Known about the structure:
The structure is a single chain. The chain is mainly alpha-helical. The chain has one domain. It contains 3 helices and 2 strands; from the N terminus they run H-E-H-E-H.
Amino acid sequence: MLGKDPVMSLLARALDGEALRQRVIANNIANLNTPGFKRLRVDFQAFMKAAGAGSAGPLKRTDVRHLPGRFENGGQPGVEQVRETAVRADGNNVDLDREMIELVENALGYRAVSQFWTSKFKVYAQVIRGGR
């Protein structure tokens, strides 16, 4: 049952993407004072959109804003180098304030996805116990 649940598949991909984003942000902060370093970012929203675009799945989409039912492509979030931001004299474009804001946003996103994941498992546990 769990292996075929499209929502659990989506949540697993979301958690993977959030974990990658955490590593990229930590890497940016670690290279704050590295001359010539260009910050990296994860295009997570484009990843989630592309990951779900491959299949309509077993669910009926009643609105174009609904996510498809399952993933068919094995895509991963894209990590890209940011070049269009202001660069300091040493060629580095990492802004600590921006990175800290993104770190907080990412932590909130990870927490929201993991709470939804937990609630799905509680539903399965209740079904297994026979509704008790």
